[in-house]
Amino acid sequence: MTDKLLKRRSGGRSARVAKRAAPPTINPAPAGQPGGQYKPLSNDDVNAIIQTALRLLSDLGMGEVPDRLRADLVASGAMARADGRVTFPRGLVEDAIAGAAKQFWLHGIDPDRSILVGGDAVHFGTGGAAVQTLDLDTGLYRPSTCVDLHNFTRLQDTLDTVSWFTRCCVATDLPDIWELDINTAFALVKNTTKPTATAFTVADHVAPIVQMFDVVAGGEGAFSNRPFVKAHISPVISPMRYGEDAVDVVYECIRHNIPISNITAAQSGATAPATLAGFLAMSLAETLASLVMVHAIKPGHPMVFSNWPLVIDLRTGAFAGGGGEIAVMNAASAQISNHLGLPSGVACSMTDAKAIDAQYGAEKGLTSLAAGLAGGNLIYESSGMTASLLGASFEAFVLDNEMLGAVYRTLRGVEVSEDTLGFDAICAAVLGDGHFLGSDQTQDAMERDYLYPKLADRDDPRTWEQKGARTAWDRANEEARRILDTHHPDHLSAQVEQTIRTRFPIR
Asked: Which residues are bridge partners to 142 per DSSP?
């Protein structure tokens, strides 16, 4: 036994140093880690919120229901009232929940980048419609452009924590809504092979944009057979009514087999109750109304149950993207959706900070970790956003990539086994060198269990000063520039791109 414990390692110090210096061959914190460890609500709380939501739908119902949707809802079992509102019997809502798609694929143009949505897997992605971009040169905000959208898309194409990419900014230099929608969609398919998402301003834009996607996919109907873009739609306007234009978009997306995220985004004390419990009940009712709508049109169509509670500062009425309230509300929303067995979508990282500073880091870390631990299947806005969603930042994307890697590592937790407990290794170190540096167990754990930041500074103060006393913003600016200078993806063949440019008004 003693001989075994004292057995010396082979290979020598130089080999161990080389092994430590080599880049890791595995990712110790990949996307899709299991969530659900954080439950801000008790089971009784969850049930009370669900029961209140069902009561709101059965007794109050939804207003401003478009005629086509009203007919489909009534045919499915809803009740049309004389005052114009449509109510949903409990059984209809329960049928919609039971018949909903519980898991489905979000395809990437590259099949290896596709992700399975649902279950307990957590994936961080993007969102937002920032009208301003934090300029890499000036460090100040300016209107977002089409070029910015292309640059953001190809930058995030390199980031391993971003599982899917939604257009994060609005090209304000494209005031025509058709040119805006078609150029936004083109920027996505040209610059990344990940699953992507976009918005359609009006329903008439869906079919021609799908024609462009067919060109990318290889022929007529190819995109609908394997859709690699999902739609972000907000068909419910809080409080408790439908929006006709967005409902029309839902119909068109379902017709073309486009997965949809039906997003409810009420604001506390404004379009939703200021009490957190009341907010969660009404917001749940509204998102269930979206689900019943999809159920009435096409049962089981892939829909992310995107219930995003948003908070306003009640002193000023301004949207507040960072803080404890929005962290716990989105975590609670994920818990409720997961309890219902629905693919959950929530939001995080909507910091109010304008600069890449301490406020930025605190608000992003707090809200991202809460959403991940609560088990949001798709967590939106999680990368790149600043200024309460009014801004997007290249530096933020690369910093958030590192932060979200740490969240995934937290979700992975601690694996306990005979090997990781390492009784024999502890005895060998104590009776041998008196430390664990360079041991086989340490070498193995170094790559398997630890995630090493590329941007976070871990030098001692003197070394940091000698290297220029650079801030996180400095390092992130340099890394963003490096990616933009070197990563020029060529995901579309010259023939495909030329075909698209000939047929559509591509800028």
From this structure: 133
Q: Which residue ranges make up each domain of the chain?
A: 97-412
Question: How much is the average pLDDT of 205-215?
Answer: 98
CB 353 within 8 A of CB 386: yes
Measured CA to CA, the distance from residue 353 to residue 301 in angstroms comes to: 38
CA 236 – CA 91 distance, rounded (Å): 21
Total count of residues recorded for the chain: 507
Q: How far is residue 376's CA from residue 337's CA, in Å, rounded to a whole number? A: 9
Tokens of 197: 């998402």
Contact between residue 394 and residue 480 where contact means Cβ atoms under 8 Å apart = yes
CB within 8 A of 444, min separation 6: which ones?
A: none
DSSP-derived pairing of the beta strands 241-242 and 260-264:
unpaired
Question: pLDDT digit string (tens) for 306-364?
Answer: 999 999 999 999 999 999 999 999 999 999 999 999 999 999 999 999 999 999 999 99
Locate 317 and state its tokens: 């009425």
- First-last CA distance in the chain: 73
Strands 229-233 and 196-198 turn out to be parallel
Phi, psi dihedrals of residue 492, rounded to the nearest 5°: -105, 135
Residue type, 267: Q
Q: What is the CATH code for 97-412? A: 3.20.20.480
Amino acid present at 209: I
Q: Is 170 helix (H, G, I), strand (E, B) or coil?
A: coil
- The answer to whether the predicted template modeling score (pTM) of the entire model surpasses 0.85 is yes
